LGFP repeat-containing protein (Agromyces cerinus subsp. cerinus), 247 residues
Amino acid sequence: MNERKMHLTRQRQAAPAREEVRSAHVDRALSWSDFRTAVRFDPANRLLLAVPAISAKRAEHAWLGSATTPHTRLGEGEMYRREYERGAVYWSARTGAHEVHGAIAEHWNGVGAETSFLGFPTTDEQPLAASESGGRIAGGFAHFEGGSIYWSPGHGPAIVFGMVRDIWALLGWERSALGLPVLDVDVEPGTGVLRGVFEHGTVEWSSSTGPVVVIHPSPGSPDSVGVLDAVDENTLDRLRPDFAPGG
């Protein structure tokens, strides 16, 4: 009996690995099943985290439709993207998973997407805030690591970033006297002045002058007085050259 047990024990012991299949020579890629698409997981990256996060975001936004690509690793970092019929979901360890679609996605892709100064999305696309009258302003926005993209039917997409974005945020974003951005924030060559153009005015900022907010209310508009009153001295006093709320 004892001899039989010893024999079975020896049979269960794994044979020593041959040199040609030792760990240094083994393909360590594993299979990860994600709904209908099989992807490969390399223990050296974070696809194991990215796949379920991207899938959960897709489930949250069913309107994205079916996947049109597998999970794609971006560059040399642990960052991933998956394309869908009506948008894409991006994931990074810093930002988590967020969708981008429509005019905002097109504008972001146009400046270099995640490789641009904007970096990865930090929010899904959100609707614009309600107006003072209670109705919702048409359009949407998405925040990114390096700025934001706002979109409206009347003006299209526009990028706001840096101190212009921070000042505009302090004043109340799209509900402020400035309204929505109508052009991408630009950096003036030579001077480095940041300049943002909005529906009702401009915001400029430089390290030497600090913030300069100019409001241009529409003549005869019933909101003209309110627009002027919205930017008072107390508010502007908070906007010093070293002001940096962090967006």
Observations:
- The two ends are 76 Å apart (CA to CA).
